[in-house]
Specification:
- With 190 residues, the protein is mostly helical.
- Helix content is 74%, strand content 0%.
- The protein has a single domain, classed as Arp2/3 complex 21 kDa subunit ARPC3 (Orthogonal Bundle), CATH 1.10.1760.20.
- Helix 1 packs parallel to helix 4, helix 3 runs parallel beside helix 5 and helix 6 crosses helix 8.
- 41% of the residues are buried.
């Protein structure tokens, strides 16, 4: 049983990594759509929520790297900070889904998602300011890139990701022993 769950998590993670390559291709047909809608963030956040923090972190690290090598997106100049940001997303969502247990599945999901989105953006901003773009990266640039330009993407992520996770869980399409170890009496439609 344990091996079956591990295999399912590996397959889901591989699928999410593939989505990290495919989704941006669809969005990048429109100018600046990648920066606005953040399509690569969706599979990483899903992977963390569904498979747990190690798989989410792996997806967040490997997804942008593979996408950059195959498609040239993200650009190599943006790749290190994006890999760091997305790895934090995957790790934080998976970790928080393991430890946050309110009476509502949706509240658990939103706490995990919002915390991950803020943590990843904060880590990316600090890394850009101190390492990757030291001296040329301002607080205004961080706010604009992390919250203003990407606001439609944030809204889409918060609107669809919890529903996707709950739907997959209700349909028994995600591993039973994974980061969504809710209490047995918890109801999924709250």
């Amino acid at each position: 049983m344990k091996n079956t769950v591990a295999i399912k998590k590996i397959v889901i993670t591989a699928f999410c990594i593939a989505l990290c390559v495919i989704l941006p291709l669809a969005f990048h047909t429109v100018h600046n759509a990648g920066k606005v809608f953040c399509p690569m963030h969706i599979p990483v956040l899903l992977c963390g929520l569904i498979c747990g923090w190690p798989f989410g972190m792996l997806c967040g690290f490997v997804g942008p790297l593979l996408s950059s090598l195959i498609t040239g997106m993200p650009l190599m100049s943006l790749l290190p900070s994006m890999m760091l940001e997305l790895a934090v997303y995957g790790a934080v969502t998976g970790f928080l889904m393991k430890v946050v247990h309110t009476k509502s599945t949706y509240v658990n999901l939103y706490i995990s998602l919002i915390s991950a989105m803020l943590s990843g953006r904060l880590v990316s901003g600090i890394a850009n300011a101190l390492i990757f773009s030291a001296g040329s990266y301002s607080f205004d640039a961080w706010i604009t890139a992390s919250f203003v330009t990407s606001l439609p993407g944030l809204i889409i992520q918060l609107a669809i990701i919890p529903t996707i996770v709950v739907t997959l869980k209700k349909a028994h399409l995600i591993p039973e022993k994974q980061s969504l170890d809710f209490k047995k009496k918890q109801v999924y439609n709250k």
